[in-house]
Amino acid sequence: LSYLWNQGENGICCPMGMTFASVGALRHDPALAAEWEPLIMRAGYDSRPIHARDKSAITVGMAMTEKQGGSDLRKTQSTARPAGSRTGSGADYLITGHKWFFSVPMSDVFLTLAQTENGVSCFLAPGWLPDGSRNNLRIQRLKEKCGNRSNASSEVEFKDLHAVMVGPEGRGIRTIIEMAHYTRLDFAVGSSGLMRQALVQALHHTSSRTSFGERIIDQPVMANVAADLAVESEAQMWLGMRLACTLDHQDTSEHERLLSRIATPMAKYWSCKQAPMFVVEALECHGGNGFIEDHLMARLYREAPLNGIWEGTGNIICLDVVRAVQREPATVDAVMEEIRQGLSDDPGLAVHADDLEKRLRRLPDNQGEARHTVEVMAHTLQASLLRRYAPAAVSDAFLASRLNGHWGRAFGTLPGGMDTRAIIERARVQA
Ligand SMILES: Cc1cc2nc3c(=O)[nH]c(=O)nc-3n(C[C@H](O)[C@H](O)[C@H](O)COP(=O)(O)OP(=O)(O)OC[C@H]3O[C@@H](n4cnc5c(N)ncnc54)[C@H](O)[C@@H]3O)c2cc1C
């Protein structure tokens, strides 16, 4: 659903993604999860500014980033002190501090971080108090963002904000990172949805316009661009779908849990990294019309870089892959097992898999190679998934270009001999 929705409107995907992801963090505290999950799960949107418990359905936000840094949350300066009372399942705290980025400030409840005497801890705060008044936060301004403008992002001050602790005291980053794991999946899927929309626009425009007496898409150079974009879009889609599937089974299958652990940040890195270049190429397919604000492409263009930034920038995400390998070396076994499932009948690909495994094993001692290793992992896993799920025209083109080196440095550089027509036909929206 996220893949589909991101093809239509990206701003609303931020509150939906955070609400979906909050369950991961809340389950650190079964009592809190029991209290809030039913309201999170309920379909519908209740916009009334009242206490969350009085609503028919709720949205959940997260406020972590402070001025001094969002990547290194250990630098959190907001503080929490016990309020001396209890609400529902837990002790009440009062938080004072500032958050430099807080999207969806009208969230019904939100997770945040603050220092207690035992370190950075995670808290859940309601947007409105039981008496109907606003919790003690002041929105200082809404950010003037270069894209994603349908989603409000704010700077806020907390002054004795009422909140309850989630998870163990002093382990707040670990608790909230559980939420980030899910939002990272959501952004990987989201970026592939964005790419799909850009592709659909490019295919439509180049199919309905002629130049030099022929449809533009039928001209060999454009056919290569369109097919290359279509191959990329499909590879990103399968990667996102496979990882979404791991979430469904991670409580019952160790393989799925380990695969999710290492490959979700990888997908977040790679889909978000490819999206801006992809959108630029799709925009150029429209000629000058693509650069004009009336056209959808201008909006996709401004949207494309964002998913790479929030919920962990590229470097931070690659460092998360390094951490996965360091702390759970079995994650490497899981991703290699997954990759080899699709490559068993292809000796050439087995060589790539062996190379990747070596890279991953030495990653903890070679952090400077993290981006390259993650990129190789993304391409190898995507190749394997395409071999399993896509027609040969698509997987052949992907393997020849992305793995076997017959590719340039821009889209539209597939090697000769690829069935670009079949690839393009598969990517078309079927009426
Ligand atoms: C539109 C928008 C909405 C947002 N909404 C929210 C929200 O609702 N809640 C929230 O909490 N945050 C939100 N954010 C903040 C976002 O999560 C942070 O901007 C992001 O995590 C990066 O933090 P930073 O901006 O402090 O950059 P920094 O942490 O200062 O990073 C700057 C650069 O340094 C690099 N870097 C940092 N550490 C390392 C390292 N160890 N090794 C290598 N490179 C490193 C980073 O990759 C980055 O390129 C939002 C951001 C945007 C743009």
How would you characterize this protein structure?
It is a single chain. By secondary structure, the protein is of the alpha+beta class. It has two domains: 2-170, Butyryl-CoA Dehydrogenase, subunit A, domain 2; 175-427, Up-down Bundle (Butyryl-CoA Dehydrogenase, subunit A, domain 3), CATH 1.20.140.10. The protein is built from 13 helices and nine strands. The strands form two sheets. Strands 1, 2, 3, 4, 5, 6 and 7 form a seven-stranded mixed β-sheet that branches. A hairpin with a 2-residue loop joins strand 8 (210-211) and strand 9. Helix 5 (220-249) packs across helix 13. It starts with a helix and ends with a helix. The relative contact order is 0.10. The mean pLDDT is 95. Bound molecules: flavin-adenine dinucleotide. Flavin-adenine dinucleotide (FAD) binds next to strand 1, strand 3 and helix 8. Flavin-adenine dinucleotide (FAD) is lined by residues 62-65, 69-71, 101-103, 145, 148, 153, 306, 309-316.
Beta-strand segment tally: 9
Major sheet:
7 strands, mixed
Overall geometric form: globular
End-to-end distance, in Å?
Answer: 20 Å
Catalogue the ligands.
Answer: flavin-adenine dinucleotide
What is the CATH T-level topology of the largest domain? Butyryl-CoA Dehydrogenase, subunit A, domain 3
Order of helices and strands: HHHEEEEEEEHEEHHHHHHHHH
The Rg value, from CA coordinates, equals: 23 Å
Task: Note the beta-strand portion.
Answer: 15-25%
Number of helices: 13
Number of domains: 2
CATH class of the largest domain: Mainly Alpha
State the secondary-structure class.
Answer: alpha+beta
Low-confidence stretches: none
CATH superfamily of the largest domain: Butyryl-CoA Dehydrogenase, subunit A, domain 3
Mean pLDDT: 95
User: Portion of residues in helices?
Assistant: 40-55%
In CATH terms, what is the architecture of the largest domain? Up-down Bundle
